[in-house]
Amino acid sequence: MTGTDATSVMTALGERAKAAAAALRMANTKTKDSALRLAASVIRREMTEILSANAMDMKTAEENGIDAALLDRLMLNSDRIDAMAEGLEQVAALPDPIGAVDNLRYRPSGIQVGHMRVPLGVIGMIYESRPNVTADAAALCLKSGNAVILRGGSEAIHSNRAIAACLRRALVDSGLTQDAVQLIDSTDRAMVGALLKSESYVDVIIPRGGRSLIERVAAESRVPVIKHLDGICHVYIDAAADPAMALAIALNAKTHRYGVCNAMETLLIHQQVAASTLTPIVRAMLDKGVEVRGCERTRALCGDLQVGTATDEDWATEYLAPVLSVRIVDDLDAAIVHIEAYASGHTESIVTADYEAGQRFLREVDSASVMWNASTRFADGFEYGLGAEIGISTDRLHVRGPVGLEGLTTQKWIVLGHGEIRS
Q1: Alpha-carbon gap, residue 324 to 218, rounded angstroms
Q2: pLDDT recorded at residue 388
């Protein structure tokens, strides 16, 4: 497909999405929730069709030598499809943020001024591998009153088509326009470029995938992007940390799941407690099959334990694997300096019983999520009470951290008067 052809296709998609977004602004909560629950029913009813489509994707992926981790993300089964349907029902049960008014107050002139929450408009979603993102993204966008243009990975094209067809059927049967959810039905990479240049139709781009995808989107997009590149997350064990708590948090932050953006990649530990606390943690990590790479002080303290040498590259690496960097630091100040130098702005945690140290860490560490005596694995929309998330943002505008329904909205000023005129 040429660039001109891709632009032409994207223009048609964008025009329909823009019209759908205008229609969704008038949809009430009951109608949106009904569409989501009906979509869940259709997905369950069409499970055989979705599994058949997924089998085609799996066969092609295996023939192309896709690695095991990617195959696992691509694979659907009855449990995963049922979970997809449950996710739609859970979004339907969430409070609708649209139309909520806050900060309404009187001014000396007699007018009332406040904010009303409204949809962003049209969202472009670019993602890889996981077919369930098709349903998740569509559900969150619909509930928040946004039209969505979905561009999934080529490896999941048949699965995404089948899921999107279910969603669009439910929209029509609920009295909404099917153009509220559109799937780019082409695997040509030119379509990604056309979507990124559709500033006349698309209000925000949300990419979910590997670093190369995120970098391309950030470099090429003319549309505002909600993104995060890396999850280089830290746990700092302070001088006043409880050793048992430090061990439990460090193990959970690293070994609960390896290939997730909120897993700990670097462990920092205060020199005063390193002798008593570090060795048990390193031994537990090694027992779990984690490769440990440490600074010189760490390696000296760990003696015969198998600890490799950490380099500057390690401090700046998101492993997404059973690998951990460990550094002994002089104090809290040194820990904060290290985090400022190497963190990706995702999630950092301090383990300490010292109130002043905990408060300083919360105030001074500049990441999307900053924690005190908790595992970094809690940096998640569901765990934060958002019900669901469409992604995590390490940007500062307009959302930061897990992005749920409210993150897919903006606010407009509203003014209520009684005939006042300005003098």
Answers
A1: 28
A2: 79
- Going by pLDDT thresholds of 50, 70 and 90, the confidence category of residue 129 is confident
Q: Which residue has the tokens 């307009």?
A: 398
CA distance 147 to 163: 16
- Which three-class secondary structure string do you get for the chain? CCHHHHHHHHHHHHHHHHHHHHHHCCCCHHHHHHHHHHHHHHHHHCHHHHHHHHHHHHHHHHHCCCCHHHHHHHCCCHHHHHHHHHHHHHHHHCCCCCCCEEEEEECCCCCEEEEEEEECCEEEEEECCCCHHHHHHHHHHHHCCCEEEEECCHHHHHHHHHHHHHHHHHHHHCCCCHHHEEECCCCCCHHHHHHHCCCCCCCEEEEECCHHHHHHHHHHCCCCECCCCCCCEEEEECCCCCHHHHHHHHHHHHHCCCCCCCCEEEEEEEHHHHHHHHHHHHHHHHHCCCEEEECHHHHHHHCCCCEEECCHHHHCCCCCCCEEEEEEECCHHHHHHHHHHHCCCCEEEEECCCHHHHHHHHHHCCCCEEEECCCHHHCCCCCCCCCCCCEEECCCCCCCEEECCHHHEEEEEEEECCCCCCC
160: pLDDT confidence band, cut at 50, 70 and 90? very high
Return the bridge partners of 235, or none. Answer: 267, 349
- pLDDT tens-digit readout, 277-328: 999 999 999 999 999 999 999 999 999 999 999 999 999 999 999 999 999 9
Can you give the pTM of this predicted structure?
0.91
Is the pLDDT reported for residue 211 higher than 90?
A: no
Q: Burial of 404 by CB count in 10 Å (0-12 exposed, 13-18 middle, 19+ buried)? A: buried
- Residue-level pLDDT at 70: 85
Task: Tell me the average pLDDT across 107-125.
Answer: 98
pLDDT at 67: 85
pLDDT at 1 over 80: no
The pair of three-digit structure tokens given for residue 355, joined into one six-digit string: 């109130």
Alpha carbons 41 and 64: distance in angstroms, whole number: 34
Mean pLDDT over each residue of the chain, to the nearest integer: 96
